[in-house]
Design a protein that fits this description.
11 helices; binds zinc ion; 3 domains; alpha/beta; Udp-n-acetylmuramoylalanyl-d-glutamate--2,6- Diaminopimelate Ligase, Chain: A, domain 1; DUF34/NIF3_bac; Alpha-Beta Plaits
Length: 372
């Protein structure tokens, strides 16, 4: 077991919620403090308020991972006799770093919206609003026949050749490679100054752009040649689609009223606001954690019977009525599911890496509303 530094810890976390998934202009990443220090205790929170930082001080936290970035609008001042300034001052004085994973955590596979969809027991879950399609590359490498199996396996193990539910997909054609080792060469086959011909296999496979370097490294390590001939082509077809919100179905149809009760119990909220006819039947559910006002048309277009999202505005509720889209608003605070969600992901990742880190879930309630 080892104690990681902040960079190692965040690099690991960003394998789960990579920054490039965030919506443009989102304020994500390290916001306060430094990652250049050992990380022994991490606290996960939805919001960073002064009493959340007080909790972190008591628990000797080195790093807070928050969903809502505490610095979102440009800072005009840090006045330390006011709660906001004091919050920042306390973080700096107690050497607590704050890192925000916001829309990248919403969009991540298995992230906030998947946790909410899971809590609502939705099935056949898919992305509601696509925001990012993973670019793909074609990798072609020429390998002597004796080493083709090993190179194919190394590339597949590194993530190449993933198509749907299939891994290690390649196409192979045989041919003759030629080369003439020049002065200074140390050839695996043949000798300097003599034209060689070798039976080779042309292996082609597909690689997500983010794995390109890893796959090429694995290929080079297994390939016997001193100089390896390989080509990388850009592709127009795309890999995995990422996006905001999820759409899925309930195992059985229910009334909007029953569904509203289901949302209350599943997401542990004392009340919900409902738009639509309570007796209407619902089965297909669209969901966006937090504020999904902007996406009611996407929810309607997706064929959802009901849309679950928070912070619903009065006029957007009218728009939904006119669209004939039922809405259940359980509030923004349902995103609290991220606390346990991120903690579980980090515990698994730290165990795999043998990182000796305590993951602590904030117990502070940051729901600003009281329901009476
Ligand atoms: Zn939010």
């Amino acid at each position: 077991m080892k104690t990681p530094n902040g960079y190692e810890m965040i690099q690991l976390f960003e394998q789960f919620a990579p920054k490039h998934l965030a919506m443009e202009g989102d304020k994500i990443g390290l916001q306060i403090g430094t990652l250049n220090k050992p990380i022994r205790r991490i606290m996960i929170t939805l919001d960073v308020l002064e009493h959340v930082v007080d909790e972190a001080i008591v628990h000797e936290i080195d790093l807070i991972i928050a969903h809502h970035p505490p610095i979102f609008r440009p800072l005009k001042h840090i006045v330390t006799d006011q709660p906001y300034g004091r919050m920042i001052e306390k973080c700096i004085k107690h050497n607590i770093a704050i890192y925000a994973a916001h829309t990248n955590l919403d969009i991540a596979k298995g992230g906030v919206n998947d946790w909410i969809a899971e809590a609502l027991q939705l099935q056949n879950v898919d992305v509601l609003v696509p925001t990012y399609e993973e670019p793909l590359k074609k990798l072609v490498v020429y390998v002597p026949r004796t080493h083709a199996d090993a190179v194919r396996k190394a590339m597949g193990d590194a993530g190449a050749g993933h198509i749907g539910n299939y891994s290690h997909c390649t196409f192979n054609s045989e041919g003759i490679g030629t080369f003439l080792p020049e002065e200074g060469a140390n050839p695996f086959i043949g000798q300097q100054g003599k034209l060689e011909t070798v039976e080779e296999v042309r292996i082609e496979t597909i690689v997500p752009a983010r794995l390109q370097r890893k796959v090429i490294r694995a290929m080079l390590q297994t390939h016997p040649y001193e100089e390896v001939a390989y080509d990388v082509y850009p592709l127009d077809n795309k890999g995995t689609t990422y996006g905001l919100g999820r759409i899925g179905t309930l195992s059985e149809e229910m009334t909007l009223q029953q569904f509203a009760e289901h949302v209350k119990t599943s997401l542990h909220v004392p009340a919900v606001r409902v738009v639509g006819e309570l007796a209407s039947r619902v089965r297909k559910v669209a969901v966006i954690g937090g504020d999904g006002n902007k996406y009611i048309h996407e929810a309607k277009m997706s064929g959802a019977d009901v849309y679950v999202t928070g912070d619903l505005y009065y006029h957007v509720a009218h728009d939904a009525l006119m669209l004939g889209l039922n809405v259940v608003d359980p509030g923004h605070h349902v995103e609290k599911v991220m606390k346990e969600g991120v903690a579980n992901v980090l515990k698994t990742m730290c165990a795999q890496q043998k990182f000796d880190v305590d993951i602590y879930v904030s117990q502070t309630n940051t729901e600003p509303f009281t329901f009476i």
